[in-house]
Amino acid sequence: MVIEQYTIATPPKYNFPQPTIDEALPQRLLEQSMGSLRYPQRQHFQLNQQSFQQSAKIDLHAETLQLGMQPILLKPIHEETQIAACDTSTIKIGETSTGILIAVRGANVWKKHRSYKYNRFGPFIFHITEENKKEVYDAIERAYFVSGRVQGHPGIVNLMQNPTRIASLLERWLQATLSGMLNEGIVLFDGSLTAGTVDTPIERLRGILVKARECKNVVLAFSKITNLRAKGRLITDLALERGTPYLLETTGLRPKPPIVLLGDVYVARLSHRSFAFRLDIDKEDPYEQRIEALGKLIGNDVLSQGYPETLRLAHILCTFTANEVIAMQHFVARRCGLIIINRPDMHRLLFGPFGRGESYS
């Protein structure tokens, strides 16, 4: 297996297998990053390393959800097919007296001719405060998503929600980029095809899926974790033990407005003795095209533990390592003249061995 790095961050051109892409959003991310770092000069800087998790609290009426127990069998199709995936991550690297310091990064990975290639975008470092949180987010959103902007945008009401929303903007841009660059390929998303949230307006995700269909691509969205249950049990726990890859179809899932499901939901077990995952496939794709796309995925990608290697690499390449976090902390401290401090952990101080720290509170 060969993994080839094409580019890092945001150079003028990208070595994708297709023509160069619109760089407006990465450029605006970079501008807002540098702009936000002008202001925390000579403050105290409390080191911190904490990953932000995307909120999974989406209201779905799952009481009527049913899981079909008649498996749809899948056969590998070894016809050469290009597969691409993307993912983003964000991490809190510290806090100042006026806000938080965060980093955001994204990665595109594509597989062709038995080799993996990738682009990484970032890390983009932001100093987010109560005063600039809406300005930073809106400026980034306007750089690329003008047409998909939500009417009556509520703004960012919670400082701690801002990092995941910035990462979500980058992820939608990466998804749109891949969907329009491949032809007759497979595009893998991390998560579901659920829309109607503040982070994922319906028209924005629908536009990405339309672009994918125009290029004859099939979008497959894999969820590592799901809360959907049938008969009181998680749908991924109800998967059957079989010797061949298969799908189980779900029916009766009704989202509560304004939430909309733009994909049909399946349970997929794509290799023998592997884990099962929730899989969303665009509702507009014909049934035969869905089955063919999954056959090509099985026949072209590595499916260790039933999860596509292309998507796994996208997650790994955008995740921050401990060394990278330390480097970013010292970069910000030197650039902005911040004084690094180490505040006492009040949980440990007050409760001794019974205090587990702020990460658990």
Characterise the protein shown here.
It is a single chain. The protein has 361 residues and is α+β, with helices and mostly antiparallel strands. It has one domain (2-360). Helices cover 29% and strands 29% of the residues. The strands form four sheets. Strands 1, 2, 4, 5, 6, 7, 8, 9, 11, 14, 17, 18 and 19 form a 13-stranded mixed beta sheet that branches. It is globular, with a radius of gyration of 21 Å. It starts with a strand and ends in a 10-residue tail after the last helix. The relative contact order is 0.19. The model is unreliable at 7-20 (pLDDT under 50).
Secondary-structure element order, N to C = EHEEEEEEEHHEEHEEEEEEEEHHHEH
Strand content: 25-35%
Tell me the number of helical segments per DSSP (H or I, 4 or more residues long).
8
Question: In total, how many beta strands?
Answer: 19
Helix content: 25-40%
Largest sheet: 13 strands, mixed
Low-confidence stretches: 7-20
Provide the residue-averaged pLDDT. 84
Separation, N- and C-terminal Cα atoms:
42 Å
Q: Could you say which overall geometry the principal axes of the C-alpha atoms support? A: globular
Coarse structural class: alpha+beta
Radius of gyration: 21 Å
Q: What number of structural domains do the residues give?
A: 1
